[in-house]
Amino acid sequence: MAHKLNQAEQRVLEQCFIFCGVENKTGVAEEFGNKQKFLKGSIIYSPNCYQKSMGILLRGTASVEKNNGALLLNTLKPASCFGVAALFAPVRQYVTTVRAKTNCTVLFFSGEALEELFQRQPAICRNYISFLSSRIQFLNKKIDSFTADSPEKKLLLYLGEQIPGENGAILLGLPWAKLAESLDMSRSSLYRAFDALEQQGILRRQGRSIVVLNQQALGPVV
Predict the structure, then answer these.
(1) How far apart are CA 39 and CA 60, in angstroms?
(2) H or E stretch including 145?
(3) How is residue 63 annotated by DSSP?
(4) What is the layout of strands, in order, in the sheet containing 62-66?
(5) What 8-state DSSP symbol labels residue 72?
(6) Which of 57, 108, 143, 171 would be a feasible disulfide site paired with 53, CB 3.0-4.6 Å?
(7) Distance of alpha carbon 92 from alpha carbon 136, whole angstroms
(8) Can you spell out the DSSP letters for 37-55?
(9) How far is CA 36 from CA 42, 56, 141, 152, in A?
(10) Would you write out the chain's pLDDT as a tens digit for each of its 222 residues?
């Protein structure tokens, strides 16, 4: 049984996709969820440390990594979820590592709890399916990026997946070498791709921030 959610945690819950359109979100979460705390630097999930539960980050930030932290895939913030795609998979396997970048609080929902919620709250079932559908679209875009026939197209596909900041600029969360590695190109090819896109007037670099000047260029294939 979960601990009571404080007001800050209740506000985070309001922003989580899984509870969109659900009444009495706090009551549902407190009845079916299990709240746990993790210290900065600790492993929340990994291929060797995994429970069949979906996690919602209530407080703090966490990183999603591969190869023991060598490759950063995502940064989780409050209201982010993880463990969704692996929850009902027939094989007990988790392929990434979720690590607490700060002290974190996570609300876990077991597979059994979600199955009961799917019956009680059809909106939760729809939201869950919608999320999985969006992940399929995301993976299709990743495939596009791997099969793109030029570094410029790979870079544009990557930038199209990023969420701009308040000023409209995209902050690169990876060092240049790591970004080049994730795009399967050399660092020199990455630099040349940036130079080419700047010369075409598609983007402008400001340190580690990227301002996209031509949003239409961020389509599936340029």
Answers:
(1) 10
(2) helix 122-147
(3) E
(4) 43-45, 97-100, 62-66, 71-76
(5) E
(6) 108
(7) 20
(8) EE-TT-EEEBTTB--SEEE
(9) 13, 10, 34, 43
(10) 447 899 999 999 999 999 999 989 999 999 999 999 999 999 999 988 888 899 999 999 999 988 777 777 788 999 999 998 888 877 777 888 999 999 999 999 999 999 999 999 999 999 999 988 887 776 766 666 556 668 888 888 788 777 777 667 888 878 888 888 888 888 999 899 999 999 999 888 888 888 888 877 665 433
Residue located via tokens 């988790």? 94
Question: What does the alpha-carbon distance between residue 122 and residue 25 come to, in Å, rounded to a whole number?
Answer: 13
In angstroms, the CA 133 to CA 40 distance is 32
Distance (Å, rounded) from C-alpha 148 to C-alpha 136? 18
